[in-house]
Design brief:
With 228 residues, this protein is an alpha/beta fold. The chain contains eight helices and ten strands. A five-stranded parallel β-sheet has the order 2-1-6-5-8, with helices on both faces. Helix 3 crosses helix 5 and helix 7 crosses helix 8. The longest helix is centred in the C-terminal third of the chain and has 19 residues. It is elongated, with a radius of gyration of 22 Å.
Length: 228
Amino acid sequence: MAGFRATVLTLYPEMFPGPLGISLAGKALAEGAWSLETVQIRDYATDKHRMVDDTPAGGGAGMVMKPDVLGRAVDQVADERPKLFMSPRGKPLTQARVRELAAGPGAILLCGRFEGVDERLIEGRGFEEVSIGDYILSGGETAAIVVLDAIVRLLPGVMGNVLSGETESFETGLLEHPHYTKPQEWEGRRIPDVLLSGNHGAIDKWRRAEAERLTRERRPDLWDKKNR
C-alpha cells in the first residue's frame, strides 16, 4: 500500500488526478509511491434533491456548504491523517509545512465551493485551513492540486536528484539563483563566465550572491525574516 495517502472531498471528483496524473506525480502515482482517493460530497446528502448547501445564516449573498452533509463525508474517511481545508483565509502554505506533510502518512483535503463552509464543520472536525495565496479561486480543487503536487515531489524516489529539492526557492530561506544551459550565447546574451570556469567554489559563491540579490529585490519579507 502506498505510503502517502491523499483523500480529496469534492463536488467535482472528475477534476482529479488532473495534472497529478502526469509527469513526476503521475509516474509516482502509477508506481504506487502514493495513492489518491476522491469522495463525492453530494453522495452524503440525504434529501431527494441531494442539497449540499443552503442560504447563509444572518443573510447575505451566495450559499454555504452544510455541516451535516460534510460531517458525514468526513467521518467516512477520517483517520490519523491531518485534515486540510483549502481556504483563502487560511495560513499560507510554506515549504516547511509541505515537508512536514510529505513526511507523514497522508492528508485529507476538503475542497469548498460557493461562499464557503459552515464554521462548525471546520471547528468540529479539526480542519487546518490552508491558503496558497492572496487571491480567490472558484473552488478548493485547484488549490488541493497545488498542495498535493508540492508534497508528492518530495516523497522518497519521486525526484531523480535529491539535491534538486534541497537547492530550490524557499528551502534555504532564499529565492533560487538563476539557471543557464547551452547554447553559450543566445540573442547576444552570454552565460556568466563564472559558470563556465570550472571553479566550483566560485560558482557556489556566485549562486549564493545571486540568490541573496533576488530575494532582497523580489521578496524583502523573506530577506528580513532570514536576517532577523
